[in-house]
Specification:
The chain is an alpha/beta fold and about 400 residues long. The protein has 18 helices and 12 strands. The protein has a 6-stranded parallel sheet. Strands 9-8-7-10-11-12 form a 6-stranded parallel sheet, with helices on both faces.
Length: about 400
């Protein structure tokens, strides 16, 4: 038993039930159904009217194909909270006659959209919307995802900018706020998977996930209409002179003294490199600092001007196989990528993106690819070919397939 688990056992009754539910949630997220069952059972024993415990217990039974037990827990949950969205979704999953696995209200929304005269309006929402400084907003990656996706959707004839659009697309960098349940709501879970819970994706009619590895987790959580949608790019190759051996583009993280683990690893190689991004002043030696901002509209020039571009991901993205748009952008621009480990890279790009495991390993493979330009070129071309099959135009069409006949 872990220290956290031991602490929960000795807490007061209300607090223990709450923490048992939390531990059950964590177990679902990590795919440990046996632990989820232990903790949801304990929470239910302590607090029999806990709808969270009942819902978790129903999910465990459903995952174990124990239909009757799951149905019993769902009914108990709905007696306490008749509109509990997770329990209602499980009712659909447990219904052998519901082959579409779709909520009735979702079908109604789609019918309204198909019958609507005139243009359908779409709103795209991001975590960066909460940034009040327009200049700082340019430093957020999801701001540019929104811009690119918006261009493609406008090109398909959908309106943007209305206060209450017919359709909402949420780019999940953090849980959404104030979702309009009268609209058709979609979410693209493209980063920070640890923030996804058994509840906070319930407002959405459709869930798109950037990681094939994480799809079974969402299914185990009892979500409906889950579909794979990897990251993508709008970049195209450019021809520019090579000016840098090794570069990195990304903001420093305030929680780290070295700004970012990958930069510390870069420094440890003793090789020349340049970094562009926010918050690096006072962390990097001036010779390694390229600047606070590089214009998104000219990213191709930067990536194509370097022999190697290094890349990393947040730890939860690495663990759950979420590959960032940056990898697609680098490759599509004509750049070559070496990345920290991410279990989603090989399924997408095969061997085109070498992965490193330690500063020593990084130094070894960087020196190898600096010395072997032909090997570097072959992998870059292979990665570029794959990256350019994943475009914002295709993602826009994938979203619209849900309601366009």
């Amino acid at each position: 038993m872990s220290e956290l688990e031991e602490a929960c056992v000795h807490m007061s009754l209300d607090c223990t039930a709450r923490h048992c539910n939390m531990l059950s949630e964590i177990s679902f997220h990590s795919g440990e159904l046996e632990k989820a069952e232990v903790w949801s059972t304990k929470a239910f024993e302590i607090q029999p009217d806990s709808v969270t415990a009942l819902h978790h217990a129903a999910l465990v039974a459903w995952n174990h194909h124990e239909r009757q037990a799951a149905m019993d827990m769902v009914r108990k949950c709905l007696l306490i909270q008749p509109r509990h969205r997770g329990a209602l979704d499980l009712l659909i999953l447990l219904d052998p006659e519901n082959h579409q696995r779709c909520r009735p209200e979702t079908r109604d929304k789609i019918e309204r959209l198909r019958k609507k005269k005139g243009a359908v309006s779409i709103g795209i929402h991001t975590h960066s919307d909460r940034e009040t400084d327009p200049e700082m907003r340019l430093l957020w990656g999801d701001h540019w995802v929104r811009q690119e996706l918006g261009k493609e959707l406008s090109g398909l004839g959908f309106e943007q900018g209305r206060a209450r659009p017919d359709i909402n697309i949420h780019l999940f960098g953090s849980p959404a706020r104030n979702v309009d349940d009268t609209a058709l709501n979609m979410v693209w879970l493209h980063s920070h998977p640890d923030m996804a819970t058994t509840e906070n994706l319930r407002p959405f009619d459709y869930i798109f996930c950037a990681s094939s590895h994480f799809l079974p987790t969402l299914t185990a959580m009892g979500y409906l209409n889950v579909e794979l949608m990897p990251a993508c790019t709008s970049k195209t190759p450019v021809q520019v002179p090579v000016e840098h051996d090794m570069i990195f583009l990304g903001n420093a993280r305030e929680s780290r003294s070295d700004g970012r683990a990958i930069v510390g690893d870069m420094i440890a190689t003793g090789l020349d490199f340049k970094v562009w991004g926010n918050l690096w002043e006072g962390i990097l030696p001036p010779k390694n600092y390229g600047g606070r901002y590089w214009d998104y509209e000219r990213l191709e020039e930067l990536y194509a001007s370097a022999k190697i571009t290094l890349n990393d991901h947040h730890p939860d993205m690495e663990r759950e196989g979420f590959v960032s748009n940056k990898v697609f952008d680098i490759l599509a621009s004509g750049g070559f990528v070496i990345s920290g480990k991410n279990k989603g890279l090989a399924p997408l790009f095969e061997d085109a993106v070498p992965e490193y495991e330690s500063p020593e390993h990084l130094k070894k493979i960087v020196e190898y690819y600096l010395d072997h330009s032909e090997k570097r070129r072959c992998l870059m071309e292979k990665g570029q070919k794959i990256a350019r099959t994943h475009t914002y135009a295709e993602r826009a069409i994938q979203f619209t397939r849900k309601w366009v006949v």
